[in-house]
UniProtKB/TrEMBL annotation:
PANTHER family: ENOYL-COA HYDRATASE, POLYKETIDE BIOSYNTHESIS ENOYL-COA HYDRATASE PKSH-RELATED. InterPro entries: ClpP/crotonase-like_dom_sf, Enoyl-CoA_hydra/iso, Enoyl-CoA_hydra_C, Enoyl-CoA_Hydratase/Isomerase. Signal peptide: none annotated. CDD domains: crotonase-like. This is Enoyl-CoA hydratase family protein. Gene3D superfamilies: 2-enoyl-CoA Hydratase, Chain A, domain 1, Lyase 2-enoyl-coa Hydratase, Chain A, domain 2. Belongs to the enoyl-CoA hydratase/isomerase family.
Length: 242
């Protein structure tokens, strides 16, 4: 991951194409440190979270997953940062990566992006990420996509509340007026307004964080998850598929 700063915007770029920007312990730690630094930077009005390669984030690093408690801490830090966080997506987003989108205040995507909650096909559940997503998503859509792991496109992601906006063209062009508006806002106004609009997500993280991180850890240690993850690496169906 690397950070750049220009005209009031700090851009954090996920840059680990070898593992499709999966949420390893290292990446989560780097993001937490970068978020803290942006929070202390008086010149930063907003943070843009983006990526290199064709995947924004593939979810948990199945070879070396981060501690669910550390991922929970990252989500809390994103939602309590007194500056807006804007996701810029031009590729695929899976599983835990969708939790990052839910923690962002604004999310924009280009035409090549796609989305899927893949956990149930691995013997897992979208436990920790549900706290940033359920307050934002259409309930019927959440039930469908959480349960079935079906992939969907940017238009559908916008319809159900996962994205703020999508474009068939350049996402930077679509985001230009958004970032311009944030640059013109005062720091205290942004902080107080973000606290209001993100209140539901913050409440979910505070209320359910411990319970759902425990659930996530238990599921990752289960026999079904071991079978599901092994099957994924071996490119075969897990034993429960009928």
């Amino acid at each position: 991951m690397h950070a750049t700063r220009a005209t009031g915007i700090t851009t954090l770029t996920l840059d680990s194409p070898a593992n499709r920007n999966a949420l390893s312990a290292r990446l989560v730690g780097e993001l937490r440190a970068a978020i803290a630094e942006a929070g202390e930077d008086a010149g930063t009005r907003a943070v843009v979270l983006t990526h290199t390669g064709n995947t924004f984030c593939a979810g948990a690093d199945l070879k070396s997953p981060c501690d669910p408690a550390d991922f929970l801490a990252l989500l809390r830090e994103l939602t309590t940062l007194p500056k807006p966080v804007v996701a810029r997506v031009t590729g695929h987003v899976r599983a835990g990566g969708l939790g990052l989108l839910g923690a962002c205040d604004i999310a924009a995507a280009g035409p090549q992006s796609s989305y899927a909650f893949t956990e149930t096909h691995l013997g897992l559940a979208p436990a920790v990420i549900s706290m940033t997503l359920l307050p934002r998503l259409d309930p019927r859509a959440a039930s469908r996509y959480f349960l079935t792991a079906e992939p969907f496109d940017a238009a559908e992601a916008t319809r159900i509340g996962l994205l703020t906006l999508h474009t068939d063209g350049d996402p930077d062009t679509a985001l230009a007026p958004v970032l311009d508006g944030l640059r013109k806002a005062s720091p205290q106004a942004l902080a107080e307004t973000k606290a209001m609009v993100a209140a539901g997500v913050r409440e979910a993280l505070d209320r359910d964080g411990d319970r759902l991180t425990e659930l996530s850890a238990r599921l990752f240690a289960s026999a079904e998850a071991r079978e599901g993850i092994t099957a994924r690496f071996e490119r075969r169906d897990p034993s429960w598929v009928r």
